[in-house]
């Protein structure tokens, strides 16, 4: 197994840096410790190809949207047909009506929907809806959960170590970037996830001020981390009791763990939910779905590109493919192969790892054998440096994993052969790094 030559990527990165800030369009285009990111030319199915002509099996999935693989035929056809009819009509269309109707049919909480272009915007809209509906201001969010890059959303998403997070009972509110207004955190309460008792205490003390609790139903940005049995149902009961809006951020889980999202998978229906990424097969679209009385609380959904005609066409085509039940069964089978293979390799090479699949998302953590309960536990127990090393090494052997740790995206286009090749690469890395 030879390491790939990526000199072309290196040269193009050096040139791009002269014009584009840091040479990347998103800070996650470059993984931790990588000298330069790959410069890609194209993607098809489960593979992407760089400027040096190298082929990579890809588990980044365009950061989540490419559930149908790269350049999916069904979506391409719909998009090309829409290009001929106009990309941005800024009007109600037959397709828009079809999509809105379809979402209300497949998403359990969706009595009404509205659209934005990104998860960031859609979550901001959900915050505003919750505040308008309840007349209250505060939002509870959980440590390590990312809901977008806006000031109020980007709080306590990262930490260098557990100490930085402060007291478990009253966590610090960590800012992640310069220029972020500190006062936006005044209305945000941060808590550790998966801890119903602590949440209950805080909610009972401050229910009169809390508009919403926002959570990812599976905590995807750190680990990822699965909800404890009954955690989501407990969250549902508690928020209903305290008259607080429960928002599920399904930007990652939406369409990936089931057609109706994690709320369908776990059988817990929130008041509002936000979808983006995989909703439109690689085109920018986000949807907010929820109870009619909250969705119609008098908050206009502004945005020039909201429900852009191409994104709507792409979304209808994507959902059309996903409506075949076989799709999720096959994704689960592939996930099972990956998980089984990684666990066996971990045993063989004495590398402790936790690997599990939920729908099309595989979880991979090193340094521990059982999963973790929250971000603190993850920071304390997981071997993050080894994960980063694994990602860097895999890339050199033609397998691309995300720099956002531990989240491995499968697509409908991955094959048994892809998984088997990936496991060979993992074995090679384990053999080389075993001490
Ligand atoms: N919510 C979650 C859970 C995410 O993972 C992300 C992005 O990665 C967002 C929200 C923000 O979505 P977007 O990047 O479309 O603004």
Give the gist of this structure.
Keywords: Membrane, Pyridoxal phosphate, Transmembrane, Transmembrane helix. Belongs to the class-III pyridoxal-phosphate-dependent aminotransferase family. With 435 residues, the chain is of the alpha/beta class.
The 3D shape can be described as globular
CATH topology description of the largest domain: Aspartate Aminotransferase, domain 2
Rounded mean pLDDT is 95
Structural class by sheet pairing and helices: alpha/beta
Count of discrete alpha- or pi-helical segments spanning 4 or more residues: 13
Strand line-up of the largest beta sheet: 4-10-9-8-7-5-6
Order of helices and strands: HEEEHHEHEEHEHEHEEHHHEEHHEEH
Summarize the biggest pleated sheet: 7 strands, mixed
Ligands bound to this protein structure:
pyridoxal-5'-phosphate
Helix percent reads 25-40%
**Which regions are unreliable across 5 or more consecutive residues at pLDDT < 50?**
none
- Give the C-alpha Rg: 21 Å
Q: Describe it for me?
A:
This protein has 435 residues and is an alpha/beta fold. It has two domains: 7-71 and 325-433, Aspartate Aminotransferase, domain 1 (Alpha-Beta Complex), CATH 3.90.1150; 73-322, Type I PLP-dependent aspartate aminotransferase-like (Major domain) (Aspartate Aminotransferase, domain 2, 3-Layer(aba) Sandwich), CATH 3.40.640.10. 37% of the residues lie in helices and 15% in strands. It has 13 helices and 14 strands. It has helices at residues 7-16, 73-85, 94-106, 119-134, 196-206, 231-241, 261-266, 292-295, 309-322, 326-349, 375-381, 384-396, 416-433; strands spanning 40-44, 47-50, 55-58, 112-116, 138-142, 188-191, 210-215, 245-249, 272-275, 286-290, 353-358, 361-366, 399-400, 407-409. The strands form three sheets. It has a seven-stranded mixed sheet with strand order 4-10-9-8-7-5-6, sandwiched between helices. Strands 1-2-3-13 form a four-stranded mixed sheet. Strand 8 (245-249), helix 7 and strand 9 form a beta-alpha-beta unit. Helix 10 (326-349) runs parallel beside helix 13. The protein starts with 6 loop residues before the first helix and ends with a helix. The mean pLDDT is 95. Bound molecules: pyridoxal-5'-phosphate. The site of pyridoxal-5'-phosphate has 14 residues, from helix 4. The site of pyridoxal-5'-phosphate (PLP) has 14 residues, from helix 4.
